[in-house]
């Protein structure tokens, strides 16, 4: 076949593929680029430059040094960490993005309460000081939306969640709205690094299941990694990380400071 005929055939093939709707390769999100952080030479100095299990171990040692608060104290802490930057009387609710009065904290319809992003039942840690009160995975959330999420694992798909536009759920998984996907991923993976079973609590780990029940695992890791890349840390997350570090626990979520460390570990 002549060069000219080969070129014409390639053009015809490309046009035909477009016309008949043949599947073409899809683009995937690029891994999070390496970042630098003001804490790299101090707080993270023993982790910078490491990968894999060495990085995970170094970060565990770093972030395990923390102060603990009571579950009752979480109410007032969330009024500070989750404050609406445009209205100091309100908090921003996870999964819905709704701004709601700080005074509406409680258990009634229309209230907001304390959502455990790493579900309490996945490891049976309850609300005791430790993973049950760790502000790095506790968020203000609408009472009814919180109930719908329950202790489900994380995945795409399902039916629309009433009261949380852009969020979806099915019988065993929950998909947060796009603006919260990265937040959820980084909170879950923080918990997996912070709680390694070397204290009074279970070894929390991510996996690929959406039927984890009461075992100390949360899925799906591949989806959480995708969400981390899809939704980079926001100013709200970064401010929250700083407040928890400076005013409450004295430790940081490393995946907000270095989202590329997710891929470096997993």
UniProtKB/TrEMBL annotation:
Pfam families: Endonuclease_1. Keywords: Endonuclease, Hydrolase, Nuclease, Signal. One of its GO terms (molecular function) is endonuclease activity. Residues 1-29 form the signal peptide. It comes from the Bacteria. InterPro entries: Endonuclease-I, His-Me_finger_sf. PANTHER family: ENDONUCLEASE-1. This is Endonuclease. It comes from Streptomyces roseolus. The lineage of its organism: Bacteria, Bacillati, Actinomycetota, Actinomycetes, Kitasatosporales.
């Amino acid at each position: 076949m002549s060069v000219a005929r080969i070129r014409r055939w390639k053009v015809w093939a490309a046009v035909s593929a477009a016309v008949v709707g043949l599947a073409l390769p899809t683009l995937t999100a690029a891994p999070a680029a390496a970042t630098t952080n003001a804490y790299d030479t101090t707080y993270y100095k023993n982790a910078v430059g490491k990968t894999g299990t060495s990085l995970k171990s170094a970060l565990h040692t770093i972030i395990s040094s923390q102060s603990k608060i009571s579950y009752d104290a979480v109410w007032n802490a969330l009024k500070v960490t989750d404050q609406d930057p445009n209205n100091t009387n309100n908090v921003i609710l996870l999964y819905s993005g709704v701004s709601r009065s700080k005074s509406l904290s409680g258990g009634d319809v229309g209230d907001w309460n304390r959502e455990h992003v790493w579900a309490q039942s996945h490891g049976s840690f309850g609300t005791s000081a430790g993973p049950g009160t760790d502000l790095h995975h506790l968020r203000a959330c609408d009472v009814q939306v919180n109930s719908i999420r329950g202790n489900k694992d994380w995945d795409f798909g399902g039916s629309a969640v009433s009261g949380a536009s852009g969020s979806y759920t099915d019988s065993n998984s929950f998909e947060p709205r796009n603006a919260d996907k990265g937040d959820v991923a980084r909170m879950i993976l923080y918990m997996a690094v912070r709680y390694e079973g070397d204290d009074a609590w279970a070894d929390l780990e991510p996996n690929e299941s959406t039927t984890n029940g009461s075992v100390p695992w949360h899925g799906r890791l591949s989806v959480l990694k995708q969400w981390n890349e899809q939704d980079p840390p926001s100013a709200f997350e970064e401010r929250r990380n700083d407040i928890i570090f400076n005013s409450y626990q004295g430790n940081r979520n490393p995946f907000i400071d270095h989202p590329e460390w997710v891929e470096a570990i997993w």
